[in-house]
Structure formats: structure tokens, C-alpha cells
Write a structure and sequence with these properties.
Number of domains: 5
Largest sheet: 7 strands, mixed
Helix content: 25-40%
CATH architecture of the largest domain: 3-Layer(aba) Sandwich
Amino acid sequence: MSPAAEDARTRTICPYCGVGCGLRVRTEGGRLLEVEGDPDYPVNEGRTCRKPHELPAAVHSSDRARVPMFRERRDEGFRVRGWGKVIATLAGRLRRTVDEHGPDSVAFYLSGQLLTEDYYAAVKLAKGFLGTNNVDSNSRLCMASAVSGYTGAFGSDGPPPTYADLGEADFLLLLGTNTAACHPIVWARIQDRRKQGAFVACADPRPTATARGSDLHLPVRPGTDLALLNAMLCVVDAEGLVDRELVERHTTGFEEAVEEARRWTPERAADVCGVPAEDIVASARRFAAGRSMVLWSMGANQSTVGTLKNRAMINLCLATGQIGRPGTGPLSLTGQPNAMGGREVGGAAQTLPGYRLVESAEDRAEMERRWRVPAGAPGISAQPGLTAVELFEALEEGTVKAVWIAATNPLVSMPDSVQARAALERAELVVVQDAYHPTETSALAHAVLPAASWLEKDGVMTNSERRIGLMRRALDPPGSALPDWRIFARLATELGFGEAFAWPDTAAVYDEVAAATAGRVCDQSGLSHAVLDRSPGGVQWPFPAGGAASEPRRLYADHRYPTPDGRARFAPSPHADPAEAPDHEYPLLLTTGRVANHWHTMTRTGKSEGLVRSDPEPFVELAPPDAERLGIEEGDMAVVTSRRGEVELRARVSEELQAGVCFAPMHWGTLHAPPGAGQANAATHGRFDPVSHQPELKACAVRVSAREARDASLPARASERNRAGRAPREDTSRMVVVGTGMAGLEVAENVVARAPRSWRVTMLGEEDGPTYNRILLSKVLAGTASRDEVEMRPADWYETSRVDLRADAPATAIDLADRVVTDAAGARHRFDALVIATGSRPLMPPIEGSDRSHVHVFRTTADADGIAAAAASARRAVVIGGGLLGLEAGAGLVAHGVEVTAVELADRLMPQQLDPAASAVLAARLAELGLSARLGRGAAAIEEGCVRLDDGEELAADLVVVA
């Protein structure tokens, strides 16, 4: 029995941030009904934030990607392809690109939301068999500086402490992390410890919820963290608080690091960073005195000196002996649920599985042996691949020709999104493998491949404390969506490498992953899906073969480090300003970040009405002096402009924000922001840390203006507000609805009902005549209803309701800047509000013979008339498509006395609406009426007089309807 058919509770892991909370979900009849925290999971002990409770809306969203689609050019519509065809096409394109331009002309851009097995399959294919290390991920945008910090200090990636240490620490320093909003369950654990007497200090430019909930807020100026951290080390050194035994026996480089720190007295640092000198001194003393931890996230990492910030925090831990003991250590808070897992299997441009490096000949040879790379294959390159920003630059330059993007939306998340768009538009092949379509990125793809989402596949993830948890499948994927690892394996097979990718299931992929980590810092060789299934709390690595399940598994308790000399390494960490400082033309510093109710680019949270209501639109926060100087009030629309682009945002005036600094969240792209608003990352720049290659998303120079001030030099728009001497708007606002179908009419009806005198509505469409009930098309086809009888509103309703219906004038262009829609007749329609309600076009699958004269689509009344005319001389018909519309077409043909067979690729009729039991009842009833079905099969070719199925069966047909 498939998971979708069971009524059950399933234990799994939250797919949002890197905290890695355990969840219990309830499913019934193929639907996710309820999500709750798992009380037995040690990470959260039943607690969750708000977001996972809203997951049913995302899992069952109407924009789930369900079938593979392909188009040769972006100005064409997508055509549905079967998996076999689309993978063959893409394999051919990749092979040709590599043959003509070399292995490094292709790239893979992955995501910390992939499961470890998914990541591993892509890494193995690209690095081992295609010969390119151009494999990077969106984790480069959030955790790369932590990786380079750990690796530089300890010789390997991997955070030393665990969450259990939070409950034993006496002092917790939080730097560059709004933990309360972004990692709320970690914050809850910190608050639990604070109630027991621990002291919490938060270094952040903004008085965030985290800062307000701490004992001490250190209001550091943006970009000056290193001044603060060096000054704390200076105090530790000056007051004799250094753990000399640990430093001398187990570290190197202390004198060089402390020499730099001595330049930063508390008084000098206070002048630069804005934190009072006495608070710097007190924080340093507290850090050295008891058991202390430092926690950080994007605020420290997203910087051109992010690696140095990480090294400075680790310097402080090493100098005071805060490493390898309960309640101590440096803990980076991972942004994504499996960024750690991706790091473990080589999901970065410079790494290989097991924290190996592509530049190491020994590591390359080891992985080629494990992967059984054939002699004729290029093998693993010694050259590190392109990192995220470099990859998009190479796409724009044309040196990378093809990019395969999986489970991420870089057109919203990458810095300088204007450049990111230009890069993808230049690419010769863009493949987007995602659970959702459209996204801002998939809209530019040549191929869209439907991937199984959370709860629809098995696999593992590793959270911020190195805890590996098993994701258990509880639902069937929609349509023909597949787990990501299986898509990569099918591609590898088509490229001729099938023997090395012939895994029978996800567990077998993980067995290979675990074996590759044996003897490494991240050793998981004692784990398997079966072991994890028997471990209700997950398991922390290292867990070698024969290991015991004791926790917490703290790293470096013995102070033996995986460096050449076995010692941890200090590093000088000199202060440096952000790469782009404010100036006369761009006088404010923009810092971007997150809000509690959204996550990444809103692909999931944007589906939840509750979450969207809490944070409905993007905004920019301004300090009162800046807002007053700019003439901007709370609620005004403001334009934030940088040297790269601009974004229009609702202004919020915050008493707590530092003057000269503004803040905007990064979540909203064009699909979720108001029309024409743009997105925050249109303003950010792509300059990155020279070691980690992580871009500086936290600081760029901007100017902010009221929207009217920006518009003063532009042509007048109908939507401009009556300010600063501008002409008043008309008494009524203008709405243009593109689409005259049922959805478009419902919009018009609601506007007329709620505000009849406030709006004038224009509806533009391409079907002649008033809107009709498309569900009743089968009655028109059967001849039991006329066109007039299925119309939703009489013709005179539109006139009396002030709805201008232009049913034969489809929209041909939309100018969001001037707020004008142009129709096919050349008429221009100004709007204050625009609604796109176009529905979908009839989909003609790429079936041989689909252009024959006896093949019809079924979408409009004109289609119904054409099919009815053809039915007059037809005896047998085949309807391709067993969904609602296809069955309606079949019922209409049965009414004409035609013998009908429906062909459906899924294993049941109406697979998106009905569970197997209900579908079986429907099939039996239709058979009684004279409509039979062929299920689980597709049409391979349409020939004269018959339809040939993919299993060879031929169905006699004088008439074929595609619906």
C-alpha cells in the first residue's frame, strides 16, 4: 500500500531552518492534515515555531510541479514531455555542450533544502563523471564563512558544540543572529538557560527581538564586528584571562592574533563600533570567567570579511579555553535544514564527500576509487569549481553555457538580482528541478523537472549540531514528480554511467554516503536508514562503525585537531569596513535580513494565508532622523536605490534603528511583491569574502526617496498619489483584469459588490462573448445546452455594473512602470490595480501525429462546436487525459452515441482530485455509461484510424480529443 493510501502519523524533520526540529504529521487519504512538534525528539521536545503548522498549504498548493516540461526557446510555451524523452533531450544537450566547450561549460547549482542523498547523487555525477567541479549551492550565501572559519581554525568543517551545551553555558554571546526570529527553538533553549541564571549578550545593529530578550544589547554599527571581537580579546590578554595551558599545548598562532587584538583597546573599538567601552570590558570578562559559547549566523557570515569574523570568534574561544568542554564552544546557526548534509558530501565547489578537497590528489584518487570512475571518463578535476557569484558571472560572460538548478530560487536570493537575471537569460540551457512551478527562476528555464518535496521522499538531513535525522515518506508525490536523487540517477544512466548510479532505493544511496565518510571527522559509517529508523532522536556524528549511541557528541574534547600538527590555529583578524561604504550620492547603509513568518523566497510560506497576513508586503525600516530628512512617513511608499538597481517598499519608521542605516527583508520576489515593486536583492552587490567566497548581502550603499520624489522627473502615471502639487486622481480607480474566464469574472463581481462606485473595471480576453461556465462545456458538446445558457452573466450586466468587457481584445503588453496594458487592437488601458487571471492554454502533448486533422483540443465553446461536428460522423473516439476536463469531453461524446476510451498516464482517473477508492467508483460508473479507460499508459502516436499506446496497444479512433 502506498503512503498516500494510509491514515497514519509519521515522524519526520522540519524542512525549514537548520535547527532540525522533529515533527509528527497526520495524513489521511493522500492529504497532509496536521503537523505538530515531536515531544520525543531531543532538539525541540515538542516545541515548534509557527511555520511548520502551515505546511499543508504548501504541500497541496496548486502550483506544485507535476510533469516534466521543455521548450527549445524562452519565447515558446512549455510542452509536456515524458521522463524518458526529457532526460534523453537534456543528456544530449549536456553531452554536446561538454564535447564542444569542455566539462567546465556546465554547472550545477544546488540547495541546502535537498536531502543528503539528493546532494550526493548530483555531486557524484558532476565531479566524478562529467569532470566539472562547478557544483555549488545556495548554502554559499549563508554558511560558507562558517565553513572556512572552522576549517582554518580546526583543520575541518563541523561545529564543535551541541545544543545540549546551551543548557550548561554560563554566558552566551550572540553575534549577527536574530535567533528569536530565525531559529526560535534554539532561542527557546537559550531562554530556558537564562531563567536558570545564564547571562545573554546580543551584538546586533538593530534592537531585534533577540536583542530585546537578552540581558545586554551591544549595538554594534554595521560592519564593525571585528573591532568588537578584537577588543574583547585585547581585554582577555591584558587582564591575564588567557588559558595559557590550552594555548601553549594545543594551539599555534596566538601571538600573531593577539598582536592584532592589542591594537583594539576598548576605547578605540568603542569609537568605531559604537558599543560602550565598559560593555566591551564586561563582556570579555564574562566570556573568560565561566563556561561560554558564541553563536552566530548570517550577520557575521554575509560579509567580505566573514571568514575573519568567524576566526575572531574562534580566537576568543581558544584563548579562554572555551572549547571541548560542556557549555562551551563556537556554534554557527545553520540557515537551511540540510546545509550541513550538503557540506558533508561535497556540495561546494572546492570539496568532495567526507570533507575532502578537490585540490588534494589523495582525496581525488580515493573518491575516484570509491565511485569506480571508468578509465575513459574525465575524472575529478584538480581545479576548484566556480562558486555561486562566480558561476552567475560566468553565465553572463558566456563561459558557462548550461546550468542545472535544483530546489532553489536564485533570481530572488542571489545578490544583484539584475545581474542574476541577465546571467540566466544569456545561458544556452537552464534546467530547473523544483517542487514548484512557476518560480521567478523557473520562468526563465528551458526545462522544468518536477521534484518530490518534503514528506514525499525518504532520506536524511543534518542539523546545526551535527544531528542526522531520517525524513520518512508519508505521501505520494503529485503527478509524475520524482525524488531529486532519482532524477540525477536517470540523467547519469542516459549519459552512459548507469552502472555507478544503479541504486535500488534511497537507503542504498545513503549506504554509499556513510561508507565515504569512514575515518573522517564527519564519520557516519556506523549509520544506515535502518539504524536511524531505530533512533527516534536521530544520531549525532561522528558515529563510526561499531559506535555507541552516547550523546552529546562534542568535538575536540581531547584537543586533538585534524590539522597537520594536531593543533588548533589562531589567526589575526584585522578590522575592515564593508566593501561599499555610504557616500554623498548613496548616504545610507542597507542591511538585508529575514522576518519570523517567512523563509527564503516564500516558495512555501507564501502559500499560507496566515503567514502572508502576518507579513503581507515587503518594507524598508528607517531611523526617525533619516525619515524626517527624506520627508517619508510611516506607511509611505519609498524607493531604495543602489548603484545596481532599485526596489519600491512600504516605509516603516523605527525608533530603535540607528541613523544612517536602513533594513529590508529579502523574501519577496516578483511573484509575491506588489506589481512593479522589485526585490531587495536588486540593490545588493556581489562582492565576496576572498576565502569563503560568500557575498556581502548585509551591507550596501543606497539612497532612499519618497516615491513621488523619484517620480517627479518621470511621465505622470494614473496611479500617483495627490501630493506635492500633483494633479488629483479621478474619483474612481481603474482596474484591468487580464482574462475573461470564470476567475476574471469573479474578481469583477467582487469589486462591483464591495465598492461599486470606487472602481471602473476593464476585462480583456481572447474568447468572443461574455464569460461562460467552462464546467458546463460538456453540455454544450452534448447539445443539451446552448452558449447563452452557460453564460455566467447576461450581456447587459457588464454595462450596468461599469465593467467594460472586451472579450475579443487580449492583452499583448504590460508596462508596470507606467501602469498601462496594451491590447491586440493597440488600445492602451491605464490601471491602478492589475489582475492577471488568464487561466491556461490547451496543452497539446508532444505525441507523434498530434497535428492530424481529426485531433481536437477541448477548452472553449468553439472547441465544443468543432468536436460536436466531428462526432456526427465518428464511431469511436479516444480522449487523451483522464482529468476532469477529459472526462467531461468523454461524457459529451457518449451523448452523441460515440464509443469513448479515455487514456490516462496516472494509475487512476482524476488523480489530482480523487483518492484511489473514489477513482475506482468513478471508473465503474463511467464504464456503465459507455466510457472505458486505459490507466497507467500514455499515447505514443496518433495514426489514421487509431491511437497507439506506449505499451503497443492500438485503440481504434476516428476522433481524438486532447483535454
